[in-house]
Amino acid sequence: MHTTPPVGVEPAPAPTAPPGQPVHQTAATDALCDAASAAAGRDISPSLYNADLAPTKRQGRRWTGYSIFTLWANDVHSLGNYAFAVGLFSLGLGGWQILTALAIGAALLFVLLSFSGFMGQKTGVPFPVMSRISFGIRGAQLASLLRGAVAVAWFGIQTFLASVVLRVMLVAMVPSLHDLDANSILGLSTLGWISFVGLWIVQLVIVSFGMEMIRKYEAFAGPVILLTMVLLAVWVFTEAHGSIQWTGIRGLEGGEMWRTIFAGGALWVSIYGTFVLNFCDFTRSAVSKKSIVRGNFWGIPINMLLFGAIVVVLAGGQYKINGTIIETPSDIVQSIPNTLFLVLACLAILILTIAVNLMANFVAPVYALTNLFPKRLNFRRAAWVSGTIGLVILPWNLYNNPLVIVYFLGGLGALLGPLFGVVMADYWLLRRGKVNVPELYTENPSGAYFYKRGVNPRAIIALVPAAVLAILVAFLPALEAAAPFAWFFGAGVGAVSYYVIADRRQRFEDVDGEAIAVASTH
């Protein structure tokens, strides 16, 4: 279970409770803060610090290059990513053009994610704490809640999409269950509710055991997903008699072709706009920078090219078979004539979707909520709160409403580029990686990250125009040609604006957080 680990020095004696009664979260946090304050020689605030938000000790970190690789082995092969890449085929790109678009995106992501990951490995802190560096100890709530809000909605939607696959599998195994799939209760059939709630509970149980259990699950799921997708591609290639549609179905050429290729690469980066923000949630437990580089190298450019090859075979092979364009691998799975193979393929997709949901859509809101209420919420409690929100919003209704997906979730997503630009410009260009980690947890007005009442107004000033520009580029019909590059416009304007107006009178100190660090059970 996720328990309170000791700080970097001997903690003060923990408060006790009557036999049979657990110690209250607030009392445990206060005791931990007292021990951390004594170790750091400054007041560590319980409104900013608990066992989940504290930096991780360097000794005992468990995330190796393989651990990071399996993150990408799962996430890259998500159903949403396949739908996006197959969409490039629908737009008229052929095999080599799709691979080129993905290669451009992968090269950019390798660089962006490596720099983002280095921040977590050095400081050992999660994203809500990391964003205190540029936005202030209170202003960071804005950054973490924006990231968390997007993730909570997509957690519910992805769970719903996985429940659809589970329904297909259950009906294939027990045809009589089809009768439970004919009614509607708040938008879902009885079988739909059973499938959704079942998967919801499974994910909450896994995440209740903390980040270490997520790491183990990702390590298990990664090879399963890779093998399944390769076998599915082989099956389609065989069914197509060794022939695939290699050229684009619309015959794009010249400038239009290259615009579509670069737009595809830019959108590929935008899809991971969430991850480049909070990658430190995972790399805070990375054993070294080399492990991040190795994991990212094999998991991003190499794995993404394998992903691209599978997409080309699936889409091009299916087009050769019957002249149709698939939307996701689920379309192919449902056409498998053998019940056993269909069930195994559905099971693999379920394993995949859970893996993607845990890493992409669960961790961020859990840390955001913990950061919001550190005295009342720990990782497990925040997970249940986040999961409950993902249930009560009835996510299938969000998914079935294009306006919600495009404008609400798309609008929130457009804000992530400017956030990334401000955070990265502050950390790498202005501070050159110098961070006083203990100061991230103090409310002292003279603290390095207190700014004005806990908020850095310069970061907000840089964020607002960049966010407005990103949203305009993403949604104005007149700027449709530039829409795929909205994330880059937002990130670039945010970074440049902040770098220009940042306060250069600050003194930047580099102080590690080992004195107040906790054992790396994350």
Fold topology:
Layout: H1 25-40, H2 65-75, H3 79-90, H4 95-123, H5 127-130, H6 132-135, H7 140-173, H8 190-208, H9 211-239, H10 254-271, H11 273-278, H12 280-283, H13 289-322, H14 329-333, H15 339-372, H16 379-392, H17 395-399, H18 402-414, H19 416-430, H20 457-475, H21 486-501
Helix pairs in contact: 2-9, 2-13, 3-10, 3-13, 4-10, 4-13, 7-8, 7-15, 7-16, 8-16, 9-13, 9-15, 15-16, 18-20, 19-20, 19-21, 20-21
Largest sheet: none
Number of helices: 21
Radius of gyration: 24 Å
The portion of residues assigned to helices is 55-70%
Q: Which descriptor suits the 3D outline?
A: globular
Secondary-structure element order, N to C:
HHHHHHHHHHHHHHHHHHHHH
> In angstroms, what separates the terminal alpha carbons?
11 Å
Q: Strand portion, in percent?
A: under 5%
